[in-house]
Design brief:
InterPro entries: CPA3_antiporter_subunitC, NUOK/Mnh_C1-like. The protein is mainly α. Helices cover 59% and strands 0% of the residues.
């Protein structure tokens, strides 16, 4: 039972460190955070796959094991490794392009996001239109998609 506990503690440590690095403004630290989270997920899938056993091939045995290993966990981990390497390549290309353009690896705030976040709640409420309850919406008018069509009678 202690083996499972140690594995879960390692998974939690990798995940928390990866999330901490992912929240940084530096692209290299973001990449390291993504890789740590990917490795933590791989360990979690391996742990959830169950104990080791015979290969999932008919007639093969391994060290006298009585159960068969689950091949689904191994296939999922291989797929997750390929996906994480693709993401790592994309983030490396993004970091390289960003460094070539700005010679800074830090991600700065977007000016439009900053402007929107600084708006007060009163300004946003003024923009919301108030519906006119006295207008009959059943009669066709100039805003309908087919103004001359009155439907089947």
């Amino acid at each position: 039972m202690t083996v499972f506990l140690v594995t879960l503690i390692i998974i939690g440590g990798l995940t928390s460190t990866g999330v901490y690095l992912l929240l940084e403004r530096n692209l290299t630290r973001m990449l390291l955070g993504l890789l740590l989270i990917g490795n933590a997920v791989n360990l979690l899938i391996l742990t959830a796959g169950g104990a080791s056993g015979n290969p999932p091939i008919r007639g093969r045995t391994s060290n006298g094991a009585t159960t068969t290993a689950d091949p689904l966990a191994q296939g999922m981990i291989l797929t997750a490794i390929v996906i994480s390497m693709g993401i790592a390549a994309f983030v490396l290309a993004l970091a390289y392009r960003s460094y070539r353009l700005t010679t800074v690896e830090e991600v700065s705030n977007d000016p439009e996001d900053t402007r929107v976040s600084q708006q007060s709640g009163e300004e946003i409420e003024d923009v919301v239109p108030v519906p006119d309850l006295t207008r009959d919406t059943d009669a066709p008018d100039e805003l309908d998609a087919l103004p001359g069509f009155e439907g089947s009678k």
